[in-house]
Amino acid sequence: MNEFHGAGVALVTPFHTDGSIDFESLANLIDYQIASGMNYLVSLGTTGETATLTAEEKSAVWEFTSKQVNGRLPLVAGIGGNNTLEVVKQIKEFAIEGYSAILSVSPYYNKPTQEGIYQHYKAIAEVSPLPIIMYNVPSRTGSVVSAATTVRLARDFKNIVATKEASGNFAIFSEILRDKPEEFLLISGDDPITLPMMALGAVGLISVVGNALPKEVSDLVRLCSEGNFAEAKGIHEHLLKIIDLCFVDGNPAGVKYALQKIGVGQDTLRLPLVQVTSATKAAIENELLSFGK
């Protein structure tokens, strides 16, 4: 699973001002990521506004992304939900060509027990043709995947190969790293805490702000991977303000505005998400200047 070491990015889904998918901007975004040193790409995670896409639109984005990447980087598809049978169906029907893994968020809204979470991922693991990266993001799901549940799944299913951890809970991170199988990977799901997570033993990051600043994010992760935390700290500190700005009015509203200023797509979102405030726009513009953008 070395292809999931390093910096990955959860791609936004660019839209035209009428709300339709802007495939030209998506192609430009993909090429921008590859040229700037990203190690792998995630298509249709949360940042891709997946919840507002139809099944047909999802298929079109996955197919287009695979063709545009054309084998230049590993690709991960985001397929998750709170209806286990539906997620199993989607995974069975997924056209895997060009993809290396599936990122699957833990069930949201239902608030399952740890046993329910285990059984959900068990059902997915038993049908998936690709390795699975779990995704623990309690701020969105309303429940936490415990370290014990993560390790249990990692030990019971060899095709559950990693977890993207966005809980912000260093006790969970530490327990996973202590108890996991050797080959199982811990991946940061939070831009601002990637450096300390990698200092503990995480192998990289799936980033949001990397959409707009892929070189800076990939440099940060590379330096951490090399153990050069002194130099990485400078990049980490420089990124902190724009990371905050990209989330203050919701994700991906902030990073979409940053991308518009860079010249990669419009900052159009689908309801119920809306654009960032005028004050946030001005602050993002100012911070981009500090990166030479």
Automatic annotation (TrEMBL):
Gene Ontology molecular function: 4-hydroxy-tetrahydrodipicolinate synthase activity
Site location (Part of a proton relay during catalysis): T46, Y109
Biological source species: Sphingobacterium hungaricum
Pathway as given in its UniProt record: Amino-acid biosynthesis; L-lysine biosynthesis via DAP pathway; (S)-tetrahydrodipicolinate from L-aspartate: step 3/4
Subunit and partners: Homotetramer; dimer of dimers.
Catalytic activity, reaction form: L-aspartate 4-semialdehyde + pyruvate = (2S,4S)-4-hydroxy-2,3,4,5-tetrahydrodipicolinate + H2O + H(+)
Gene: dapA
Protein name per the record: 4-hydroxy-tetrahydrodipicolinate synthase
Family of the protein in this entry: Belongs to the DapA family.
Active-site residues per Swiss-Prot or TrEMBL entry: Y135, K164
